[in-house]
Design goal:
The chain is of the alpha+beta class. The chain folds into four domains: 103 residues, Helix Hairpins, CATH 1.10.287; 86 residues, HSP40/DNAj peptide-binding domain, CATH 2.60.260.20; 71 residues, Sandwich (HSP40/DNAj peptide-binding domain); 36 residues. 27% of the residues lie in helices and 29% in strands. The protein has nine helices and 16 strands. The strands form six sheets. It has a four-stranded mixed sheet. A three-stranded mixed sheet has the order 1-6-5. Strands 2-10-9 form a three-stranded mixed sheet. Helix 2 packs antiparallel against helix 3 and helix 8 packs antiparallel against helix 9. The protein binds zinc ion (2 copies). The site of one zinc ion (ZN) has 8 residues, from loops.
């Protein structure tokens, strides 16, 4: 049960403000913590005296108290003196009073408050890694190292052996300033600069982090890179960023991926392209050729009559899409290879071919309708010599 404020100061209900001030000064000197070191009774008493004085010395608060008693200030008195009080701030214990007074007095006193530091998530870290084409295609587990700030494990981020209430703000983390003008008084609270608004300071500084509570550390972790990633992909590793502030969680690590190109296969999304040059007879007659794929070389069939510029699609031989898992294709772009040098034999074969085509054209000119299929068949005959 709280004692009556008048009783605490030992004054009557109709005491003047002078009486109250005088009583307060006398009692404050008597019970001041500096005079009564280690006496917890005195500290309690000192706190009680201050509280009573803060209310009774203020005309408006005193009127409120006279009308409503302690209930007018309930919940407002959670401050902890903890043995301090040398820098006595008359508003120190009224951190929640703004609403109450605005309610009773229609804003005669304004309270302005700057934000106190909140628990915030740490910064994200960005690193870049370069993968071989095959690593990106198949997926890989990579060990990566980077440096980040971590909570000092020797002091659990406190910066010292223990936390003690900040002597500048009596552990409240904020300092109040009152400005009186024609329009009433304005109370501004600012985060305490001595403790950065935390309300506590570290005692016995930690030698590992020199009081900062954080340490820059080299960190090595293994990350799984899914198959099919490409340059420009970004992986997020939750919680591997910089340490948070004021007890907030750490940030995230973002791994930006670069993939080296394949020596012969060209990548477009999850499809792979390969340019294949074939001779005229190979295009006309069809052939079986070896081509490079993701899994080494593979034999593929070129159908007879493939045109230069045509594409052959090998379904599912591309890269997986890391997001949906389906595989792309390998696409073979066929081109006619022009012979650079002709041997005599070559030349003779081609001349023979040309002659045949001339005959064919003249037959077409005569209204013969065997047309292209006819040419085609003859070409086949020309090349398919019995073995
Ligand atoms: Zn402080
Ligand atoms: Zn430390």
């Amino acid at each position: 049960m709280k004692r009556d404020y008048y009783e605490v100061l030992g004054v009557s209900r109709n005491a003047t403000s002078e009486d109250i001030k005088r009583a307060y000064r006398r009692l404050a000197r008597q019970y001041h913590p500096d005079v009564n070191q280690g006496d917890s009774n005195a500290a309690e008493k000192f706190k009680e005296i201050n509280e009573a004085y803060q209310v009774l010395s203020d005309e408006q608060k005193r009127a409120t108290y006279d009308r409503f008693g302690h209930s007018a200030f309930e919940g407002a008195n959670q401050g902890n003196y903890g043995g301090f009080g040398a820098d006595f701030d008359p508003f120190a214990d009224f951190s929640n009073f703004g609403d109450i007074f605005d309610f009773f007095f229609g804003g005669g006193t304004q309270y302005r408050r700057e934000r106190r530091p909140k628990a915030t998530k740490g910064q994200d870290i960005k690193i870049e890694i370069t993968l071989e084409f095959e690593e990106a295609a198949r997926g890989v587990e990579k060990e990566i190292s980077f440096s980040r700030t971590e909570i000092c494990s020797d002091c659990q981020g406190i910066g010292g052996k223990k936390k003690v209430a900040c002597p500048h703000c009596q552990g409240k983390g904020e300092v109040r300033h009152t400005q009186t003008s024609l329009f009433g008084s304005v109370v501004t609270s600012r985060p305490c600069s001595y403790c950065q608004g935390r309300g506590w300071i570290a005692e016995d500084l930690c030698s590992s982090c020199r009081g900062s509570g954080k340490l820059k550390k080299e960190r090595k972790i293994k990350i799984k890179i899914p198959a099919g990633v490409d340059s420009g992909y970004r992986l997020r590793v939750a919680g591997e960023g910089e340490a948070g502030e004021n007890g907030g969680p750490p940030g995230d690590l973002y791994v930006h991926i670069k993939v080296k190109p394949h020596p012969v296969l060209e990548r477009k999304g999850s499809d792979l392209y390969y340019d294949l040059e074939l001779s005229y007879p190979q295009l006309v007659l069809g052939d079986e050729v070896e081509i490079p794929t993701l899994r080494g070389t593979e034999k593929i069939r070129i159908p007879a009559g493939t045109e230069s510029g045509a594409s052959l699609r090998l379904r599912g031989k591309g890269l997986p899409d890391p997001r949906i898992g389906s595989r792309g294709d390998q696409i073979i772009r066929v081109k006619l290879r022009m012979p650079r040098r002709l041997t005599l034999e070559h030349r003779q074969a081609l001349e023979k071919l040309m002659e045949l085509e001339r005959v064919e054209n003249s037959l077409e000119g005569n209204g013969d309708n065997r047309k292209q299929s006819g040419v085609f068949e003859r070409l086949k005959e020309a090349f398919n010599r019995p073995e």
